[in-house]
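From the shared-data thread, chain only:
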Amino acid sequence: MSEKQLNSKQFFFCNSCERLVTCENKELESCIICKNDVCQFFHICIASQIKSIIEKSIDSLDFSINSGSEIHRKIKQNFAKFITLTINTDGMSIFKSSKTSIWPIYLTINQIKKNERFKLANVIVAGLWVSKYKPNFHFFLKPIINQLKILKNGLVIGDKILRFFLTHGVFDKPARAAILNTVQYNGKFGCLKCYQPGQNIKSAKNGNIRVYPYQNYHYDRPKRTHDKYVFDVEKAIKENNVIRGIKGSCLLSDLKFYFPIESTVIDYMHSILEGVVKSLIKYWFDEKYSNRSSSLRKYLKNIDKSLVKIKVPSFIPRSPRSLLEIVKWKANEFFSFLFYYSLPLFRWIMPLGQLNHMINLVVAIENLLQPNLNVEYLDDINCLLKDFVRDMEFYYGLDTMLSGVHELIHITSDIKNNGSINELNCFAFEDMNRQVVNFIKAKNHTGVQIINSLKILKLFNYQMCSLDKNVKEDIFSWSKRFNHDWVYGRNLNKNILNCKIRVGLEQNFFDLRDDFNVTDYVRKKDIFYTSTNYKKVKSSNYCVEINGKFCIIICFCYNQKKCVAICQVLSKLIQPFYNEKFKHLKSSIIMCTLSDQYLIEEIYNLKKCFLLEHEEIYYVSNFSSSHILN
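Structure, as tokens:
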């Protein structure tokens, strides 16, 4: 790959006169006709980016990812070997003192494993919009769509011809409406998946909000389909009017295997975590809702005190913040609150019916996020979500039946069409946005800065991958000196080891029979475990699972040959959070107490778990968010 192959084109667009201007060597500030401000955008060659990524990843591509989805099966009927792409875009401000925002258009290759797929070097940046105005997607997307149309005919990579199809799109709701040319989520017929028009009601602030009351016999119907969508588009164009939420055509529908209704995924990060979960916390603790029977405001101080005391393992990105700071919470904080903190904290204070209502949501979404989702459970999970939506109005009021709650009844259908929401969500794209913003070092020429930085990153990555293995080892020989050896904490007194532990060491770990040290934490590369004797940090990396048993690490014993964890076993009491109708679907949280049993295990055989100690009970979960959030 050369810089020439990573060719980018710069354009300027006037919103007032809808005029497009190509400008290779200079920047325009105003339209040469109407003198109004112009918008700047860039396009980067997609084919060259794809080719460089696939060439270095060809042997590690996983063609089984989402291979059971309906859209994947439709392509399989026509082509044997193909690669699918996902598209995303979202706007973000780059300076607090400026209205200018950027809108990158990302394409990701679905057959690259997730831990590599979202590295910026493996992401296709197809376009970049830089302006204080939102994009005109007709002009911005058209050259990108034209490039994708060519890619369906195939690229020669090595000795293979590979076809590429855009099959999925994941966006927040405002961007989704803009790209698909539909009404916004709070407009009439604002649901992308069905024809329920919703209902306008007065809000608490004397405004209007659109709600979607639950309909017993038509809770997710009448459903939109691709054929109905095409009919609505044609009618909207013919009558120059909005038809059942459709304003007109969208460019994505020009692609052979992109079906705007089925292919556009409901993003659980925005819709559920930053939508439903954030709203629920507001209904529980906001003073505005304190007169409702669902309010938990009188418990706010106690719950908040317990919440901020929670110590989390390293696979949870952030320690819990106060409920009073909820406006600052990020999506991963709502994630942790939903799956780890909420049920143990609410178990004894929330009315039983309301708690069971909450359990339906937690159990359903947690099971949808399992790395190996059993598709046979999808109908049962849908029943849990249907029950949650049905009872939402009863517990919280009609004004809480917003679009995010309504979309819950369409999640499982979305998964059948597109595949796991683990693979298709906005978490990784939001992180990429933050990386792109870090390319900006000055207020002038922000678009050029980003494009040049992306080119350098991709060229560097391509060159490094093409180097001989021995050459790379010589270049990076310095890295072998770091994170290669075990690092241990402070030495502890051996008297903390009781007779049972000493006998276990002698019988099972001969290398540690005589000469060993006792310490409070161990670290090596990405491995980091602490013990109950380590008091310096707010995290809790001492709860682990060993062969199906939950344990708490007391300390570590080590010498030059071996390192083991000394663990006290937790006795499992009950797995309390589930719906009686679907006992095979449960929250992973298990109530435990300390036992008098001990286990000694090597560090590599430990699996880190979440632990919450509340009211003398240990709540333990082996549900790891690392495959979702990292």
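The radius of gyration is 27 Å.
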